[in-house]
Specification:
9 helices; 5 strands; five-stranded mixed sheet; single chain; elongated
Length: 224
């Protein structure tokens, strides 16, 4: 049965218009993006197949072009659209955290960092530089390492923080291993950076570890 033959309140687009986007399932949201299905399958059926194959919406967005092309009904055009949606989401979050107090919306900062870092295959260390109102003024990827380790230099972090006239900073790095837990090395470098920045009166608000779909906050764990 085609989606057009479904009751109006069960069709994804009509359901969105009548009830709101928050009432749609992952499959229904994905079906609106897909627009059409394939022979013998509606867009919702195809969406459910994709979710079953990849496991989650996030995994679909992170799939390679080869993996997307291998799915009947998908292809390069759909892959490009998926990448565009993902990047628009990341940029929209980046705009939001520039105009809000980071301490009042830590979940948005966490979501942004997860979108920014979850795809990285190598370990990278990112710093967000904030003003006196805790609004993000700039961000930089300061260090890049191997798959398992990166070298972080307090002197360079202090130098960049002073360059941006930052009142505070938020650190973030990814664990390509997929485990969102701090290591002893993570704790030591965080304390070293905190001590270095204390000397120039710049606060460390948080340090996030991103691993796949998960984030871990030093502040929430009482490690700062």
């Amino acid at each position: 049965m085609a989606i057009t033959d479904w009751p109006a309140d069960e069709r994804p687009r009509e359901k969105l218009m009548q009830k709101g986007v928050q009432y749609l399932s992952d499959a229904e949201l994905l079906a609106i993006f897909l627009r059409v299905g394939v022979t013998g399958k509606t867009a919702v059926d195809l969406a459910r197949d994709l979710l079953a194959q990849f496991g989650s919406l996030s995994n679909i967005f992170n799939a390679s072009i080869k993996e997307i092309n291998a799915v009947h009904g998908m292809g390069e055009s759909k892959y490009c659209q998926l990448q565009a949606i993902f990047e628009m989401s990341r940029r929209a979050l980046a705009e939001e955290i520039k105009h809000q107090d980071a301490l009042s919306s830590p979940e948005k900062v966490s979501d942004y960092l997860r979108l920014k870092l979850s795809r990285q295959e190598r370990e990278v260390f990112v710093v967000l530089f904030l003003d006196a109102q805790n609004r993000v003024q700039a961000q930089e990827t300061l260090f890049e390492g191997t798959l398992t380790q990166t070298s972080v230099y307090p002197r360079e972090v202090v130098k960049r923080a002073l360059h941006h006239n930052a009142a505070s900073v938020i650190f973030a790095h990814n664990h390509p291993s997929g485990i969102a837990e701090q290591s002893r090395a993570d704790e030591l470098i965080t304390q070293a950076l905190k001590k270095a920045l204390d000397l120039v009166d710049i606060r460390v608000l948080d340090h996030f570890i991103v691993a796949g779909h998960q984030t871990m906050s030093f502040a929430e764990q009482g490690l700062l």
